[in-house]
Amino acid sequence: MFLLDWLSWLVSFLIDAQNIIFVLMFMLFCTTIISLARGLRYFLARRESRTFIRETADAFRQCQVHEVLFLAHRKRHSHVAAVVASGLEQFESVSHLVTQAEAVAMARRALHRSSAATHRALKEGLPTLAAVATTAPLVGLLGTVDGILSAFGGSAMQKSTLMRLIMGRLSQSLVTTALGLSVAVLAVWAYNYFSSQLEAFAIETSNASSDLVTFLTVRHRRP
Q1: Would you say 106 and 94 are in contact if contact means Cβ atoms under 8 Å apart?
Q2: How far apart are CA 120 and CA 135, in angstroms?
Q3: Among residues 70, 82, 76, 66, which one has the least CA distance to residue 114?
Q4: How far apart (Å, rounded) are the C-alpha atoms in residues 155 and 127?
Q5: Helix axis angle, 17-61 to 2-15, nearest 10°
Q6: Nearest CA among 29, 36, 37 for reference residue 136
Q7: Closest by CA position to 174, among listed 148, 135, 136
Q8: pLDDT per position in the chain (223 positions), as tens?
Q9: Angle at Cα 125 formed by Cα 195 and Cα 186, nearest 5°?
């Protein structure tokens, strides 16, 4: 009974046009906040990663591992720095305990774990954008349905008055659909943009991992 009562209340709440507008405005607010937060996060990740790659080029050539780690810890928002630091730290912590091949293999696994964790962190908020993009048009449509149903509630009026009332209510009922579509368009655009950025970040971390494994392998083959 409690579940049925709750579902009945939820349906009656959503059918109300004013409540639907409130829900859509909340979706718009969430979309805006997530987009701003992800935009700033991705901007910092891109900028610090480019700086990290440029600053560590000489350190890698001179095999200055501690310098690379020092620079990586300074780039807190860089996805490339986070992955490289995890691989180097794992390798340095076990290189004197196991063989070189085993140390490189352990570093490779650390790189894989760090890449996955970094990807999850960068992906935060994107499922919410996808949910808003999917549900906002349907929520807006509920408002239109409510407006259409209420538009035919005055059948006892004169024909001319009834027609004006019906047309007025029908035009008002389309506002929620338009608002829902607008929110969905913004959410879809933001989701697609950030997804493309996330794919680029995944490629960068994969390249950084491959380069680090190559560096560790070649470094310990030198006499």
Answers
A1: yes
A2: 23
A3: 82
A4: 45
A5: 90
A6: 29
A7: 148
A8: 455 555 554 455 455 557 788 888 999 999 999 999 999 999 999 999 999 999 998 888 888 888 989 999 999 999 999 999 999 999 988 878 888 888 889 999 999 999 999 999 999 999 999 999 999 988 888 777 766 666 555 555 455 555 555 555 566 667 778 888 999 999 999 999 999 999 999 999 999 999 999 888 876 554 4
A9: 65
Domain definitions of the chain by residue range: 14-127+136-219
Under 8 Å between Cβ of 205 and 83: yes
Distance separating alpha carbons of residues 70 and 52, to the nearest angstrom: 11
pTM for the full predicted model: 0.79
Give the span between the Cα atoms of 25 and 29, in whole angstroms. Answer: 6
Q: Which amino acid appears at position 130 of this protein?
A: A
Token representation of residue 162 = 């009834």
Rounded CA-CA distance 37/124 in Å is 10
Best CA proximity match to 123, nearest among 79, 182, 185, 80: 79
Helix-helix angle 126-151:17-61, to 10 degrees: 170
Task: Tokens 């996060």: give the residue.
Answer: 41
Entry field: residues in the chain: 223
